[in-house]
Amino acid sequence: MNYRIFPKTGEKVSLLGFGCMRLPVLDGDHTKIDEVEAVRMIRYAIDAGVNYVDTAYMYHGGKSEVLLGKALKDGYREKVFVADKLPLMFLKTSEDVPRLLEEQLTRLDMPHIDMYLLHDVREKSWEKVPKLKVLDILKEKRAQGLIRHIGFSYHGETTAFFKEVIDAFPWDFCQIQLNYMDTALQAGVEGLRYAASKGVPVVIMEPLKGGKLTDVLPEPIQRYWNDIDVKRSPADWAFRWIADFPEVLTVLSGMSTFAQVEENIQILSNADANALTKEEHSIIGKVADAYNKLTPYACTACKYCIPCLVGIDIPGLISLRNEATIFESAEKVSFSIRNFVRPVPSTCTACRQCEEKCPQHLPIADIMAESAAMFEQPKQSS
Ligand SMILES: NC(=O)c1ccc[n+]([C@@H]2O[C@H](COP(=O)([O-])OP(=O)(O)OC[C@H]3O[C@@H](n4cnc5c(N)ncnc54)[C@H](OP(=O)(O)O)[C@@H]3O)[C@@H](O)[C@H]2O)c1
């Protein structure tokens, strides 16, 4: 395994981190983790040198933390950094902060968490942080030894806001979404470099875009990968693209099968910073261009269309609708919309006021109707 240095303590962190958000499940039910297989996968990864594991309060309907606690019995706890996250979305009062942390330590069945993140920082959720004195409370918890390092995971809309958050506190680390298709989304490459320039190491999430870069390859993409001389799996290319940034501390992958654990260990044991050649960068750039050409609706996320009268996140939903086609990932998009997106597209009243403001003249009400039909019903199992 390759390692990078955590600047605050000089400790070594494995370049591959185990994300416990997409563990193997039983009966297709994400709240029913296949415990035997998940424990086997996590311990195999640790035995192979992985020393960073990431979970959160709500992963697998609250079962991920419990599973991780079980996986780390028998001497495994001492070998890893455990990352867990304070769910900002559930905070109503300052008292919720210690209460949730206690609950998480109980679920994990361990006395402390190494890396504690504010979960899902974005423009709205960040407002609670000063209001409820969240960081003051976390500093106390750090002094008491219940958490070792304080960070945040970011899903805000802009790089500018990410920079504001970076500058707002002496963070020990942060976590951002990054892959070769999302170079300018949320924090983006610019945010990665900004954080590093301020001495804040960066943990990467969604390096394979939640599996969309590897699941079903549209024909032009498959053709492109087949035609190039350097033979690597799509996952291999995507991980190497991230490992190339020296600013990256560790790359989290939510591995769902044992074979993925084996492959990702292999890849990130052999991927160095600044190792990709100009030709290799150009190959990845061409794949990204080929994906972008498959985009059905040319939304530029200028946001002229919002606020929507019923509160729909129009650019966010169009982006998901586009992703369903670009990555042939309708099922994954459907899961996201049903579980995380509010209001859902069927809330659209077709008032079409947004369409009058859209510089791209997109038929937004029709896209919402199409999205409702495509994504709001769970897939019937046959
Ligand atoms: N803080 C936050 O707000 C936040 C948000 C997102 C994620 N995270 C954390 O970051 C971690 C990583 O994000 P992610 O799970 O989205 O990572 P990811 O690596 O982008 O996606 C994981 C998915 O990629 C596929 N995959 C993994 N290895 C593969 C391989 N070798 N070959 C082919 N496909 C492969 C699998 O999809 P299939 O199951 O379809 O095969 C797997 O479920 C999460 O697990 C979680 O711990 C945090």
Structure description:
The strands form three sheets. An eight-stranded parallel β-barrel has the order 3-6-7-8-9-10-11-12, surrounded by five helices. The protein has a two-stranded antiparallel ribbon with strand order 1-2. The protein has a two-stranded antiparallel ribbon with strand order 4-5. The chain is globular. It has two domains: 3-284, TIM Barrel (Alpha-Beta Barrel), CATH 3.20.20.100; 314-375, no CATH class. The longest helix is centred in the C-terminal third of the chain and has 16 residues, at 278-293. It contains 16 helices and twelve strands. Helix 1 crosses helix 2 (63-71). The termini are far apart. It is an alpha/beta fold and 382 residues long. Strand 6 (52-54), helix 2 (63-71) and strand 7 form a beta-alpha-beta unit. The protein has helices at residues 35-47, 63-71, 96-108, 123-126, 128-131, 134-143, 159-167, 188-197, 219-227, 234-243, 258-268, 278-293, 314-326, 330-340, 353-357, 364-375, and strands at residues 3-6, 11-14, 16-19, 25-26, 29-33, 52-54, 81-87, 113-121, 147-154, 173-177, 202-205, 248-253. Bound molecules: NADP nicotinamide-adenine-dinucleotide phosphate (NAP). Residues 19-22, 54, 85, 119-120, 153, 155, 175, 205-211, 214-215, 235, 252-256, 260, 263-264 line the site of NADP nicotinamide-adenine-dinucleotide phosphate.
